[in-house]
Amino acid sequence: MHFNIAEFNVAAGRWPTTDPRMADFTNAIDGLNAKADVTPGFVWRMHDDVLEADPIEIPGANNLVVNMTVWRDVESLHAFTYKHRDHLDALRRRRDWFERLDLPAYVMWWIAEGEIPTVSEGLRRLTLLAEHGSTREAFTFQTIQPVPDA
User: Where is the DUF3291 domain (predicted)?
Assistant: First the structure.
């Protein structure tokens, strides 16, 4: 059995995405998603209809922006996240647009090849990471866990 890496991230906007102060962020999203879609190692990205069917709430957090992707391996995800210039520029500006949450900003976990994660699963993994730190079920780039045994 082969495994891919799932990644879920969530942020609380300082303002609604329709606010002009969020324009640089919202104007960049479609382009960043399009670039991710053709990046080597990319497998799947959550679209808005998935979130609409499986909405989440985080107490005390407003204006949630949620993203979830699946990649062939950690190296592919890492390359897009930290070496793709446009994405890195957006990461560097995240504090301009988003407030700190009590939860980690993102979580990763291994999934069987062909599996598509749910938003509820992403939030569950993020909560696991917040409550227990890095484990085989929920980890970050700083604490990558080995691929499960087949």
Answer: 5-143
CATH of domain 3-143: 3.30.70.100
pLDDT averages per 10-residue partition of the chain, 150 residues: 95 92 92 93 85 66 89 96 88 92 94 94 95 96 90
Q: Tell the burial category of 6 from Cβ atoms under 10 Å away from its Cβ (0-12, 13-18, 19+).
A: buried
